[in-house]
Amino acid sequence: MTVSTSTTELQKNHVTIRRFTDQDVADEMVEEIIAAARRAPTSSNMQTYSVVVVRNPETKKQLAVLSGGQKHVETCPVFFAFCADISRLDAACKMHGQELVRGLETTLVSSVDAALVGMSANIAAESFGLGVVMIGGMRNHPEDAAKLLGLPDGCYVVYGMCIGWPDAEHVPNQKPRLPHELVVHYEQYSSADPTEKLDEHDKELAEHYEAQGRNLDAAAFTGPIAKRLNSHKRPNLRPELERLGFKFD
Ligand SMILES: Cc1cc2nc3c(=O)[nH]c(=O)nc-3n(C[C@H](O)[C@H](O)[C@H](O)COP(=O)(O)O)c2cc1C
After folding, report:
1. 137 CA distance to ligand 1 middle (Å)
2. Which of 48, 82, 213, 221 could form a Cys-Cys staple with 118, CB 3.0–4.6 A?
3. How many A from CA of 15 to the centre of ligand 1?
4. Residues contacting ligand 1 via CB (< 6 Å)
């Protein structure tokens, strides 16, 4: 039985786009993307996220620097900053003479809310034929990003998103995903040793990169993970997020 819809086909065609044409994205389109994205489910209906839409070239330039020199942040016509935002929870509590108790749960709930609305925006943007790249590099310097965007206490950029029209000459082939059986479990998690499947995926991903003219690590999947994650990544993240009003206990 064939079961696919125009939405699942769109999702299955996803590739991250990092090169854009000079063509602008109309304000009406941006607003439609946001209107669609804002129908995303949100934990306890609290809507603990905010989106900052950035078009100003100077701001994008500075965001590009903060994200580790990612050129597409500067060259995209529109940049969205998806923020976890508990500042309104604070205001709501104050309206009733209460104090917001911040903890790991409020940090997680708001970060998940921001991720969900961002992913919904991704799908909405791609449905227009737009290209998208998410920017986790926005967590390199959370306090600087918050200052640049004028975020209040209790608000940080979880990730950004560059949106623009794909440069047809630089649309990459789809990246292979991990084997289905490694990721999807039915009824019970299968705790089989993943090494063999990871090895296969290393080879498949290396072939993908080679076809793109990139000659990376032969262990294309596991190699970079092992190199990157053998030390604490972004050790500044927790103290900076704490100073921005988020708690982890
Ligand atoms: C939360 C998140 C953060 C990301 N951050 C970056 C980033 O900072 N720079 C970048 O070029 N790509 C970034 N990406 C894109 C991923 O690298 C990309 O989705 C992944 O390599 C799979 O490729 P595909 O989306 O083309 O299938 C991010 C993706 C996610 C989900």
Report:
1. 10
2. 82
3. 9
4. 15-16, 18, 67, 70, 133-137, 159, 175
Domain locations in the chain as residue ranges:
10-172, 180-225
Tens-place pLDDT, residues 218-228: 899 999 999 99
Two structure tokens written together for 249 = 């206990």
Eight-class DSSP state of 244: T
Could you tell me the strand order of the sheet in which 131-135 lies?
49-54, 78-85, 155-164, 131-135
CATH 3.40.109.10 fits 10-172, yes or no: yes
The predicted model scores a pTM of: 0.97
Range 38-44 contact pairs with CB under 8 angstroms and sequence separation of 24 or more = 38/117, 38/120, 39/120, 40/116, 40/117, 40/119, 40/120, 41/116, 42/113, 42/116, 42/117, 43/109, 43/112, 43/113, 44/109
How far away, in angstroms, is 134 Cα from ligand 1 center? 5
For a pocket test of ligand 1, which of 12, 19, 76, 134 has the largest count of ligand atoms closer than 8 A to its C-beta?
134
Residue in 11, 12, 15, 16 to alter for ligand 1 test, most ligand atoms within 8 A of Cβ: 16
The closest-lying atom of ligand 1 relative to the alpha carbon of residue 16 is 26
Atom of ligand 1 nearest to the CA of 172: 26
Query: pLDDT (tens digit, 9 = 90+) per residue, 71-117?
Result: 999 999 999 999 999 999 999 999 999 999 999 999 999 999 999 99
